[in-house]
C-alpha cells in the first residue's frame, strides 16, 4: 500500500468530501405549535415560549429539565432512558428518583458537562436568563416554557412531544387530560362561584394573584380567585387588612403554610368567612405549585374542597 | 413636633384597604362597633401599626443619640453593639429551625430576635471591657467583628435552607416592617422607651459632658464608667425590643441624632425628647409613604428610611456646616 496519495487520488477524495458535505446542508421545514423552525442537517431551529430561537438536535437523545414540573412533563412524554438527570427538587415520578442529581440552585455546571444533555427544558421564572446563558455557553440549548392557563400545560406537553419526536404519545396524553378536565368543568358549571384565596407564604402574606395558573385552576374547579385586583407582581404581598377586606369564603394554603399557625400569627383574620365557616384547607404542595401533567389532579383536589 | 405627629397619625388612620373617611375613623375610635370590619381595621390593625412605627423610630433615634454620646463618635448607631445582627440571627435561626413558629400562642421569631440581640450585645460588651472598664474603641471594633461573624452565620443558615417561603420570611424580616403590630406586643417597646426617656431626662447634662471626652468629663465630676454602663444597658434593652418587633430598620439611629443636633445645637436642653419625637415622626412618615407608593403591603420600611432620609441628612450636613462635637 502506498504511503502517500497521488495527486489524482487527493483530488478525487476532496471532490467526494465536498459532495458529501454539501448534501448535509440541505434544509427541510417543520412546524412546532406556533413557533417556526428549520431543519438544518441534524439540527433544527425552534422558538421557545419566551420567543428565543434555539438550535437543537433534530432528535435529542439526552435531555433533562431544571424544574420539578418539567421533569414530570418529560417523564410523561419521553422514554425514561432519554432523561439523563433530575434536579435536587424533582421528586416525581418515582422513576425520576433513580436519575443522577444535577443541582439547579446553585447550578452544577460541571454536573451538566459530565452528563452532557443535548437540550435542557425549564420554566419561565425558575431559571434565570443569566443561568440559561451560562448553560448555553457550554453548547447546551435551554428551552423555556411558560404557563398561565391549564391549556398552556397541554400545549407545553405537545411541544415537548414534537421536539422529542413523541407527538402521538403527547397528543394521546393531552387528549385524555382535556377530557377529564371537561368532565370536571361540566360538573361545576351550574354551581355558584366560590371565592377563594390561595396563600403561598404566611410571613409576610403572599397569595396567588389574578393572572396566574392557580386562578385558572380555581375557575375550572368552580371557584374564583378572591383577589380580583391586578398587581404588578404575579403573587402579591397583602396586608392583614387587605385580606379582611377581601373576606374570602375559602382559604387554601400551600407550601409551609399551616392553617392553625396562620391564624395564630394573624388572629385578626379569624373574622373572615373562611375561618368562621371552617373552609380552610391545605392543598397538596406539589400538585398546587407545579404546572405539571398532574394539573387535572390538582383541579380535582380544589373542586373537592370547594364542594365541602 | 407632638402636634405634627398627632396630625400624621390621624391622617394615617384613614389609609388602608377599607374605604374610611374621618367620621368612620372617629366612630371606630369612640363609638366602636366590633362587628364592623372597617372599625376593627382602624382600631386593631392601623392604630397599633402607627404607634409601633412611632415607638420604634423614637427608640432607634434615642438609642443612636445615646451611643454617639457614649463613644463620642459621629458614626455610632444603636446597632454597633451587634444588636441588629444578633436579632437577625435569632429570627433567621427560628425561621429555619422550627416548622411550627407559634408555641402556646406565642409567635417565636420576635423572642428569638430579642434573645439573639441580648446574647450578641453581652458578648460585644464583654469583649469591649477590660478590668471592669468599658473601652469604647475596643467595643466598637468588637461590635464590627462580631457583626461580620454573625452576618456570615446568618448567611450560612439562609443558604442551607431549601424553603423559598422561609427565605422570604427572613429577607423581609431583615428589611423591617410593622405589619404584625398588635396591642399585645406594643407595651414592651413602649414601656422600655418611656422608662429610658425618664431616666435620661435626668442625665442629659451628663451626656453633654461626655461629648467633651472621658478625661474632661471625669474632671467635671461625671462618673464616666457608671454613665457608660447605664447607657449600654438602656440601649441594649430598648433597641432589642424595637428590633424584635420591627426588624432592623437601618439609618434612623444614625441620622436622626445628627438632625437633632443640627437643628437644636449639640447640647440643647430638649435634645433627647426632640430626637425621640423626630425619630418617631420620621418612621411614621416613612411607613405611610411606603404604603402610599406601593399599596397594599408597602415597600420595606428600611428602604424608605434610607431613600427619604439620606438626601435630607446630606443637605443638613452641607448647608448648616454641622459638626459633631
TrEMBL record, chain A:
Query: Could you name the domain of life of the organism this protein comes from?
Result: Bacteria
Residue spans making up a coiled coil are 167-194
Question: Which keywords describe this protein according to UniProt?
Answer: Coiled coil, Signal
Q: Which residues form the Fe/B12 periplasmic-binding domain?
A: 62-308
Upper classification of the source organism reads:
Bacteria, Pseudomonadati, Bacteroidota, Cytophagia, Cytophagales
Q: Does the keyword Coiled coil apply?
A: yes
Q: Name one Pfam family in it.
A: Peripla_BP_2
Q: What is this protein called?
A: ABC transporter substrate-binding protein
